[in-house]
Hints:
Blueprint (H helix, E strand, L loop, with lengths): L13 H10 L1 E5 L2 E7 L5 E5 L8 H18 L7 E7 L7 H21 L7
Parallel strand pairs: 3-4
Antiparallel strand pairs: 1-2, 2-4
Helix pairs in contact: 2-3
Amino acid sequence: MKHTFPKSEKLCGQEAIAALYRTGRRFTSWPVRVTWQPSLSATEVLIWAPKSLFRHATDRNLLRRRMREAWRLNSEEMKQGYDIAFNYVDKAIQPYSVIEKGMKKALRRIQEEHSKEGNHGDD
């Protein structure tokens, strides 16, 4: 399977992002805080590393690259459409293996929570 992260998978637009943060469900899968909601369209993702924790752009870029790579390699697990925001919350820069572990755990939890609601396969 081809591992890519095309523009169509990126959550864009102030209204869509505001709606996600307003109505989405939240949990933390250290070192990532996840906000998500089911979507009728394809899965779209927002990846964010805050300037308040990392003043240098190079540090924020490194964290975003690591989170994007973890998403790109593990996004096949997401079979249904979701809007998801991944926010890096640790104050230290973690190695890729730690970030990937948190992302995998988060993706599993999203699917588990959604399937508990009885919404699997509806869309």
